[in-house]
TrEMBL record:
<protein>
    <submittedName>
        <fullName>NAD(P)-dependent dehydrogenase (Short-subunit alcohol dehydrogenase family)</fullName>
    </submittedName>
</protein>
<dbReference type="Pfam" id="PF00106">
    <property type="entry name" value="adh_short"/>
</dbReference>
<dbReference type="InterPro" id="IPR036291">
    <property type="entry name" value="NAD(P)-bd_dom_sf"/>
</dbReference>
<keyword id="KW-0560">Oxidoreductase</keyword>
<comment type="similarity">
    <text>Belongs to the short-chain dehydrogenases/reductases (SDR) family.</text>
</comment>
<dbReference type="InterPro" id="IPR002347">
    <property type="entry name" value="SDR_fam"/>
</dbReference>
Length: 237
């Protein structure tokens, strides 16, 4: 997929990785970048077009797809993570919100924008996934479940949209320097580096992008011996 000249839409583009995606797309030569945000007044970077977008509101998502009918590259970046375990969580609220945003919200976006991408020649649809799309960590189990569901969506869409020529890319990353992982004192990769690596993967028509070194290591460790991987997690938690 050629980024130069593309018309992109990034969800959750007012801060964090989404903001980095929007800037990296402009640097890579995208002709137009819609910056989707729940509060578009918080999109302040020059060069992007702020668009009101709450991905959990299906009617608003459909309206945005009508408004942005020239999109050729969709980046589903918006997401939430409430650091909530399955059993010890005080209620189901976090689990519902994570599934509603990360899975159903992304699905609303994919359903609304797939015809747009198809009408514009195929284009590309990118879902921002995580290493916890592959395994579940006890500290944020319900987030892991939602990112695993989003991975299943990504892999299914790739087959479903092949006929219309849409490239479907899953981007995997470990910890990123954004608000989402701010409470964790662990090594992280900058949002700029993740965005650049993801866009390079899209340009190279990769189905899966391991956007940092840690994601490639975790993928290999799980393939080698998943039992040993989980035993390591159990020892640390
Ligand atoms: N940070 C990490 O370590 C990490 C690692 C792997 C993958 N990821 C994934 O990377 C993506 C970006 O995360 P981030 O680290 O940039 O998180 P972040 O700093 O918390 O930013 C999340 C963004 O998503 C937006 N958002 C949340 N719910 C939304 C909704 N219903 N509709 C529209 N926008 C919504 C937020 O908007 P508001 O400002 O309105 O809240 C914000 O712009 C997520 O999909 C996340 O799962 C993150």
């Amino acid at each position: 997929m050629q980024i130069k000249g593309a018309t992109a839409l990034v969800s959750g583009a007012n801060r964090g990785l989404g903001r980095a995606f929007a800037q990296a797309l402009l640097q890579a030569g995208a002709a137009k970048v819609y910056a989707g945000a729940r509060d578009p007044s918080r999109v302040t970077d020059p060069g992007v077009i702020p668009v009101a977008l709450d991905i959990t509101d299906p009617n608003a998502v459909i309206a945005t797809a009508r408004e942005c009918s020239d999109v050729t590259l969709l980046i589903n970046n918006a997401g939430v993570m409430w650091m909530s375990p399955f059993i010890a969580a005080p209620s189901m609220e976090a689990a519902r919100d994570e599934m509603m945003t990360n899975y159903f919200g992304t699905l609303y976006m994919c359903r609304a924008f797939s015809p747009v991408l198809g009408a514009n020649g195929g284009g590309a649809l990118v879902n921002m996934l995580s290493v916890v799309s592959w395994f579940t960590h006890p500290m944020n189990g319900s987030y892991c479940a939602s990112k695993a569901a989003e991975r299943a969506l990504t892999d299914g869409l790739r087959l479903e949209l092949a006929e219309q020529g849409t490239l479907v890319v899953g981007v995997y990353a470990s910890f990123i320097e954004t608000d989402m992982a701010a409470v964790l004192d662990v090594p992280k990769t900058s949002a700029d580096a993740i965005a650049r690596s993801a866009i390079e993967g899209v340009a190279n028509k990769q189905y899966e992008v391991f956007a940092d070194a840690r994601s490639a290591e975790i993928k290999a460790a799980l393939a080698r011996d998943a039992d040993a991987f989980y035993a390591g997690l159990a020892r640390k938690s």
